[in-house]
Amino acid sequence: MGFNLLWYDWVGIAGTMMVLGAFFLLQAGKVSGTGLPYQLLNLFGAGGVLVSLLGQFNVSVFVLEVVWMAISVYGIARTVRRGVAADASRASRSGGSTTPD
What pTM did the predictor assign? Predict the structure, then answer.
């Protein structure tokens, strides 16, 4: 039995490894669930799994990965907004400068 993997299969495998790797890093305490690295791994990992559906479409996986990506985008936007708000707060406390002297 041989494997005949095409490019989209490899992208899907890479995506799966990204999602599983992110989950492992979270469980190991190496990343924060609200941190950008975790969210980006999930976003691109889910995207990779979506690409793999070019080979054989599966509606359940499609729905799961689209929602997974939407939640990841929400988390990224929330993290970025929180970072921008924190920068603005630091700037107002330091008299307008966000760079150290």
Answer: 0.83
How far is 14 from 7, CA to CA, in rounded Å?
Answer: 11
Q: What does the alpha-carbon distance between residue 37 and residue 24 come to, in Å, rounded to a whole number?
A: 13
Q: Which two tokens stand for residue 33?
A: 């669930």
Write the pLDDT tens digit of every residue in 36-92.
999 999 999 999 999 999 999 999 999 999 999 999 999 999 999 998 777 777 777
Query: How many separate helices (H) and strands (E) can be counted in the chain?
Result: 3, 0
Cβ atoms within 10 Å of 14's Cβ, excluding its own: 15
Q: Measured in whole angstroms, how far is the alpha carbon of residue 94 from the centre of its chain?
A: 33
At residue 97, the 3 state secondary structure works out as: coil
- Distance from CA of residue 17 to its chain's centroid? 12
At 24 the three-state DSSP class reads helix
Residues 42/22, Cβ–Cβ less than 8 Å: yes
- Comparing C-alpha atoms, which of 49, 56, 59, 50 is closest to residue 13? 49
